[in-house]
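Duplicate of #3305? Posting structure anyway:
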């Protein structure tokens, strides 16, 4: 769908980016901007920035960036048109009727095509489970004590033992190999050609919050590997930003949600009446999933396996919930391993009792800490008390810390004054609790001379956007043609032109582009800051060096693009070199 620049600008300008992003990310004001944990990659410290003046967001960790429209596109996996419609409805802006041109339809329908393929596959797997071919799958679900109603409710299915049935079925419905592969249902290799991704597995359709099939999870029957297999990442399926069972759990009347590890845990809980259960999708619980839960509840109960791996997952989940600003509790399933096993053995009434008595996350962490000490040994016991004091130092608010201190003292039979003295002593030494380990983003960048040149160009563009009054001084030496590639030159031209006409807005410049990668790069151009400059001389030198670098990049690019037999080659080369030599010895400043 094509929308005019005026419509796009009206919708964008009526939706403040801080308000919109703040619904998904816990933001704190720091200086002129707001910061929080990036919803697009796992991180321990907030590198996600939202600028109210520029109306753009940018993550200094993973490089994601854009305006309010591109944020919704990336966060909710929407097309440009879908995001614009959502924001238009929020702002009360009436959009023009949908463009039904072939080009617009092709752009709009790509996502719908993949949804249709997945829906058709879900229908096939569902019917296959109930056929003679699906007898093994049905036996498995019967052994897990699932009712027909539950199997229907979750659309459970079966992928046959042959490795080409879903491909043949979907091709009979008119879909081609590349479409089936892009939907995540098939793969290709030279030996087997296009073949099924899932075979000899019971199938769990994965639905988004709008109950659209976006992928599948499959459990192998027998000893095959891997035991569980999920759909690969596709344009409609992002594991870290979806939750199994959310389409039902979001409508639960419970004032909390329960997150557990597997599909069967969710299904068993829903069958027992606990319809607030969801599960992560074959990955560890992510900050993105936490922010999804925050849309529906302010309290999340962690229900992980009671083994060592489950304990570690719970500790990690506690940290993620804290960072997202969600109240957390931990479900104690001992002596059973998981919710499914617990409910089968003790029933749903006892399970409800465990939910009602879910453990405070602080006391869970302390209990795990205690398990690592021999409380019969005075040395180990004293070490536990010291670690406890460190843990209590986490509370910044005195009243909250004192409340926990008294509760812990009573639980472990410690004199309140003795524990308080130990906490004060610990705090005076500056000892703090070690933060919970979180996976790093895995983002590594190698820099090249071209990268360094582009960084100086970004520094200049950020400087201009932060201090528009320096543009006339920059324009004496640098023009948009001095920037290194088409995108940089386009953005520089937009900045120069809009500032001269009095209509400069980084978010409006982003409206000119719809590609996610372009949004990322442009957002970086407005968020590349110099290290702190504390003297006028340092500021003058930085300005000179950046101007010279940009001018040099422009000279080298133009020289490379010109042909040696061009009659102006020699003249322009010599003149460009003279200009650089002159600039090298000039004393220029942004403040003169």
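Output from current build:
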């Amino acid at each position: 769908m094509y929308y005019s620049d005026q419509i796009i600008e009206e919708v964008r300008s009526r939706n403040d980016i801080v308000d919109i992003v703040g619904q998904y990310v816990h933001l704190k004001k720091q200086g002129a901007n707001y910061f929080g944990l990036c919803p697009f990659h796992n991180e321990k410290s907030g590198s996600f920035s939202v600028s109210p003046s520029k109306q753009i967001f940018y993550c200094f960790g993973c490089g994601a960036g854009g305006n309010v429209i591109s944020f919704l596109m990336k966060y909710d996996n929407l097309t440009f048109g879908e995001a614009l419609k959502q924001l238009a409805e929020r702002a009360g802006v009436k959009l023009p009727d949908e463009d039904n041109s072939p080009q617009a339809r092709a752009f709009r329908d790509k996502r719908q095509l993949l949804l249709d393929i997945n829906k058709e596959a879900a229908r096939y797997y569902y019917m296959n489970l109930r056929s003679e071919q699906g007898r093994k799958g049905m036996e498995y679900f019967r052994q897990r004590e699932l009712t027909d109603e539950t199997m229907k409710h979750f659309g459970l299915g079966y992928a046959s033992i042959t490795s080409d049935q879903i491909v043949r079925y979907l091709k009979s419905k008119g879909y081609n190999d590349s479409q089936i592969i892009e939907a995540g249902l098939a793969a290709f290799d030279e030996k087997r050609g296009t073949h099924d991704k899932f075979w000899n597995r019971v199938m769990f359709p994965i639905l988004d919050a709008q109950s659209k099939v976006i992928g599948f999870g499959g459990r192998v029957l027998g000893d095959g590997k891997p035991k569980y297999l999920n759909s690969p990442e596709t344009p409609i399926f992002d594991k870290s930003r979806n939750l199994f069972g959310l389409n039902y759990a979001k409508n639960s009347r419970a004032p909390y949600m329960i997150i557990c590890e597997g599909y069967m845990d969710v299904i068993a809980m829903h069958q027992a009446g606990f319809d607030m259960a969801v599960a992560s999708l074959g990955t560890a619980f992510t900050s993105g999933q936490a922010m999804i839960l925050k849309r529906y509840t302010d309290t999340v109960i962690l229900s992980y396996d009671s083994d060592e791996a489950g304990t570690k997952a719970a500790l990690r989940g506690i940290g993620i919930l804290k960072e997202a600003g969600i109240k957390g509790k931990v479900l104690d399933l001992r002596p059973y391993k998981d919710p499914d096993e617990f409910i089968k053995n003790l029933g749903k009434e006892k399970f409800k009792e465990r939910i009602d008595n879910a453990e405070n996350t602080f006391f869970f962490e302390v209990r795990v800490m205690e398990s690592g000490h021999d409380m019969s040994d005075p040395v180990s016991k004293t070490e536990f008390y010291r670690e406890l004091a460190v843990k209590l130092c986490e509370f910044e608010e005195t009243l909250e810390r004192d409340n926990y201190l008294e509760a812990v003292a009573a639980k472990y039979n410690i004199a309140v004054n003795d524990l308080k003295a130990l906490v004060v002593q610990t705090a005076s030494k500056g000892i703090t609790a070690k933060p919970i380990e979180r996976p790093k983003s895995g983002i590594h960048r190698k820099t090249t001379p071209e990268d360094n040149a582009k960084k100086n160009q970004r520094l200049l563009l950020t400087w201009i956007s932060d201090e528009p009054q320096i543009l006339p001084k920059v324009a004496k030496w640098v023009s948009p043609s001095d920037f290194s590639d088409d995108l940089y030159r386009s953005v520089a031209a937009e900045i120069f032109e809009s500032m001269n006409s009095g209509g400069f807005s980084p978010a409006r410049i982003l409206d000119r582009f719809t590609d996610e990668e372009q949004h990322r790069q442009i957002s970086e151009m407005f968020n590349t800051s110099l290290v702190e400059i504390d003297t006028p001389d340092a500021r003058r030198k930085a300005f000179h060096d950046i101007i010279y670098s940009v001018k040099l990049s422009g000279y080298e690019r133009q020289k490379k693009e010109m042909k040696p037999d061009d009659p102006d080659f020699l003249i322009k080369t010599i003149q460009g070199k003279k200009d650089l030599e002159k600039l090298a010895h000039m004393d220029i400043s942004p403040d003169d």
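Confirmed duplicate; merging threads. DSSP finds 25 helices and 16 strands in the chain. The longest strand covers residues 213-220.
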